[in-house]
Amino acid sequence: KSSMLIQKIKQDLVSHIKSGDKIKISITRLLIAALKDKEISLRNNQDFDELINDNIVMEIINKMIKQRKIAAQTYEEAKRADLAEKEIEEAKLLNHYLPSQLSQDQLNNEVEEIIKTVEAQSLRDMGKVMKVIKENLSGKCDMQLASDLVKSKLS
Predict the structure, then answer these.
(1) What pLDDT does 118 receive?
(2) Mean pLDDT, the chain, as a whole number?
């Protein structure tokens, strides 16, 4: 039984192909390819009953969005606004599959709550905190942002 998110992505690909939207077709195909890669590596690394779940899908989507943002920045610096625009457009399309993102305040509150819950005292406890954040907030926030926040609160 594959994840609901994967089902949705595959259905979207079919409708993008029907509508002939080239950018959407291309980014959706890239996403499906990335998911297939992940599935193959999971299959090789462990028992196959650990099929791709929505959290893994969101992780991959977040990684792809981050890549698009970095590429867009690079294109901007190279004065290639046309290419930067394409990357930003792709990031927006990928974002569509993620749950709504937490605001800075919400993230702050969640992180403080988790720090209290795991009774983290210092930077040594950062791993424990990040593990809980990953389990609960995966896909809902930028993990780098969460990590920086934890670091600042624990140091």
Answers:
(1) 92
(2) 89
